[in-house]
Task: inverse folding
């Protein structure tokens, strides 16, 4: 999986998303920012959090579908309705908590990054 882009905001207010390891020059004022000044371990930790979030959001509904769709086809259609309600409940009650936790993790891990222009 590729690393998530890093959002940069110049002192003049211009912002951009830049991949890790690249330099960005502000088109307005010409200041240059280097993303390699961010420790690689921090970026890897952030990428692991993104992977974990994707797994937690897509994994359980897909696992339920793998079990319940064949039951709906082979046994009874009511298993399909069960899949619908389980996925709906997961989206309404579980995913908001996962999103809040993921946002908090990103905020805490990126708050210490302050890039200075060169």
Result:
């Amino acid at each position: 999986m590729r690393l998530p882009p890093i959002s940069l905001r110049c002192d003049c207010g211009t912002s951009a998303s830049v991949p890790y390891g690249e330099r960005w020059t502000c088109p307005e004022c010409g200041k240059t920012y280097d993303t390699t000044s961010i420790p690689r371990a921090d970026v890897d930790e952030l990428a692991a959090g993104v992977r974990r979030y994707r797994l937690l959001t897509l994994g359980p509904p897909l696992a339920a579908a793998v079990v319940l769709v064949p039951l709906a086809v082979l046994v009874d259609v009511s298993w399909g309705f069960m899949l619908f309600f389980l996925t709906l409940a997961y989206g309404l009650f579980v995913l908001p908590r996962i999103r809040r936790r993921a946002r908090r993790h990103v905020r805490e891990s990126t708050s210490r990054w302050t890039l200075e222009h060169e």
